[in-house]
Amino acid sequence: MKRLAVCVALTVSAAALAAGPAATAEPSPGKRGTPARHHAPAKAANESARLARSILNTKGITYATAHVGGTDKASLPKQNLVDVSNGRLARTSPWGHKKGARVALDTKMLNGALKLGTQYRYKFQISELVGGEHSRTSKHYAGRAIDVTWINGRHVGKKADHKGFMKACRKLGASLVLGPGDDKNHKTHVHCQW
Ligand SMILES: [Zn+2]
Q1: Could you give phi then psi for residue 5, rounded to 5 degrees?
Q2: What backbone torsions phi and psi does residue 61 show, to the nearest 5 degrees?
Q3: What is the chain's alpha carbon radius of gyration, rounded to the nearest angstrom?
Q4: Which is deepest, 4, 72, 138, 186, by most CB within 10 Å?
Q5: Distance from the CA of 39 to the center of ligand 1, in angstroms?
Q6: Is residue 9 over pLDDT 70?
Q7: What is the pLDDT of residues 56-103, one digit of tens each?
Q8: Model confidence over 121-176: pLDDT tens digits?
Q9: Separation of 123 CA from ligand 1 center, angstroms?
């Protein structure tokens, strides 16, 4: 993950931030019926809110209630989803490489996480979305990655079916998937990013 992260993430994140939930421009009178370009960001925010709500309503998807590196409730994964479902941005933790920032959650990531539950029927626990500490250019800080520690009642690295889960992430369009066997940083969790 460290080596492959690129600065494109920052651009995407910045654009999403700028779009924000407050982008609610009305179409100009002369252009009714035609899709106005400035509507796209607001639409993306609405879609993120809808997907975040769907994830929260999916039985079988659970959330870590603590970070590995510190205590901060505002950046826990469930709170990230609650914030976005309410039209707000997700908060990063007050430590790590992107302290106390607010970022959008990517719709592709949200869609992937949702389908892991609803389509692939996995019961899994999300340990981090944008919170926690990751490598400097990590896609977590761009709202594009998910960490999973429990799969179908078993901890990753302790007989969980991480291979099946990782395959499902790839089928759902994830561009980078890491887990046990890949490197020392992923012995006990799966990382899927879009
Ligand atoms: Zn990760």
Answers
A1: -65, 140
A2: -100, 120
A3: 17
A4: 138
A5: 31
A6: no
A7: 999 999 999 999 988 999 999 999 999 999 999 999 999 999 999 999
A8: 999 999 999 999 999 999 999 999 999 999 999 999 999 999 999 999 999 999 99
A9: 18
Measured in Å, residue 47 CA sits from the centre of ligand 1 at 23
Distance 170 CA to ligand 1 centre (A): 15
Per the CB < 8 A criterion, the answer to whether 141 and 9 are in contact is: yes
Q: Shortest CA distance to 93 belongs to which of 112, 63, 55, 67? A: 67
- List, for residues 11-69, the tens digit of each pLDDT value: 334 444 444 444 344 444 444 444 555 566 778 889 999 999 999 999 999 999 999 98
- Cα distance between residue 106 and residue 48, in whole Å: 7
- Non-local (6+) Cβ contacts of 40 within 8 A are none
The CA 135 to ligand 1 mean position distance, Å, reads 9
From the CA of 62, how far away is ligand 1's center (Å)?
16
Round to whole Å and give the CA distance between 53 and 1.
28
Integer Cα distance of 34 and 68 in angstroms: 48
- Nearest 5°: CA angle at 120, between 84 and 68? 50
The long-range contacts involving 160-168, CB below 8 angstroms and separated by at least 24 positions, are: 162/190, 165/116, 165/122, 165/124, 165/190, 166/190, 166/192, 168/116, 168/120, 168/122
Side chain identity at residue 126, one-letter code: I
